[in-house]
Structure formats: C-alpha cells, structure tokens
Amino acid sequence: MHTSVLLEESVSALVVHPDGIYVDGTFGRGGHSRAILARLGQAGRLIGLDRDPDAVAVARALAREDPRFSTCQGSFGAIGALLGTLGVSRRVDGILLDLGVSSPQLDRAERGFSFAANGPLDMRMDPGSGLSAAQWLAGAERSEIERVLRDFGDERFAKRIARAVVEARAETPITTTAQLAELVARAVPTREPGKHPATRTFQALRIQVNDELGELRGCLNQVCDLLGDAGRLVVISFHSLEDRIVKRFIRDEAQGPKIPKGVPVQASETRGRLRAMGKPLRPSADEVLGNPRSRSAVMRVAERLA
Predict the structure, then answer these.
(1) CA-to-CA distance for 250 and 233, rounded, in angstroms?
(2) Which of 79, 103, 152, 188 is spaced 20 to 30 Å from 55 by Cα?
C-alpha cells in the first residue's frame, strides 16, 4: 500500500482557490489527488499526470467516478504539452510534484526497482518506453557507469562497482535484480549500518533510466508560464539531488533575471516571478514512525507573483 507523504501539509499549501484548476504531476495511486478533490468545489478541476501505466489505470478509474478529475499518461517533464491535450488553455492555480518512486513500484518484483525480491532488472516508470536498467548496463561504457553511480547515487565505490559490472557482463548478461545486488555486495568492501550495499546503485540506475533529474528541470522550466497569479508550486523531494534543483530554481526565479549593469529596463522587468513560501518542511516524527519511507522527504512551496 502506498502512503502519501506530507499529505495534509502539501494539499493545504497547494489549494488556495476551491474553484481553481490544479495539476497533480505525479498521480501515483491518487492519495494526493483524492485529498485535493476533497478541498475543491463543484467548479474546481484537477488533472492527474503519470507515466506509469499502472498509475494511469487507477487515475482513469477515478476520472470515471469524479467529473472534476481528468488524466493523461506522460511525464511531468512534458507538462505543458500534456495540459494542452486536455484542453487547459488558461493558467493553473497550482502544481504538485511528489518526486521519486512509489511504494507499489518498489513492492512489485516484476518492476525491478528493488533488490528486496528478485525480478527483471527493469526500473522504468513506463515499461513501454526507453531502455531498461539491464539494457543500459549492457551497453554503457565503464566510465559512464562510474559517473552515474557517483553523481546520482553518491556511491564512493563507484569505480569498483563499474569495473565489476563490466567484468561480469562479459561472462553473462546482468538481467535480474538479484544478480546486480549480489554483484554490488561482492564489489563493496565496507557496509553502511542498516543499509544494503546496493541501495545507492539501485537509486542511481533508476534516476538514469528514467532521466528523473532532466524531467524535473524540464517541468520547472515551464512552471512560471503555467501558473496564474498567486498560483502555487509544491514539490516534495526525497534526495538531495532533487531538492537542490528545486531550491535553486525557486531562488533564481525569486531573484529575477540578471540584467547587465547600465542596460535601461522597466522596474517590472527586473522582478522575480516566484516567491518562496516559508521554510522547507519535513515530515513529523510521528509520520516517519508510521511511514519510514517518508524520512528523507523535503517539501518546498513557491507562489507565482503577479
């Protein structure tokens, strides 16, 4: 079962106008979407996006139940185009992004996101698009594997693991989660207390296979054009790479464009387009106790300036 993280806090920050138009860019299993709908009036509208076909199936069922809700399959990196296909022609009142992987994806061995149970080494949010983790590992150069593990997983043994992958695949293809987890466990000389040695490798590969950071940047680059006056952006991140991108985006948009000294411009042209709303928020101790997967979550909120 998937438990939505920072549910009350995120929805309270997002929904300012009960009759507005809102976007849940990461529908998942609909926890946030159902909470948003509970706050909307009869004239309100919610659009749920997701690239996972299992999530979209749940979203379509919700759309049949509630005429205020509509859905479309696709990544939030293409949020503008997806909203266009749904006939959204004016600016929206809020966009929610709950980043990372959902519990159903982790818990289903056949999706290949986790080493907890053996399954095909896939990791794609949309299994019908792009290369699986197994395919990417089969063709990537050793230096590229090392870079991905280091940059996306903060793996200090990235070089050892990359070398082990290249040596192992020369003998037999790496096609299952168990194969990869065992390979990493043999390659890593030390252990982090309470953490499987393959944790960082699996995170890094998932981010690479799904271009998660690229999709996030692509979405954020469209946010200010999509939000109406006083519209809200709410982002829940689960690791520092995501949160750093969101933090810098809000900071840069709050500062406004950098105008060269001496260039004559109107005052309105130097203003920022967003303002940060309060400080970053983390789950309470009670929430972490009830849902340990929430422990690394950070929520940031920004508002579109008129």
Answers:
(1) 10
(2) 152
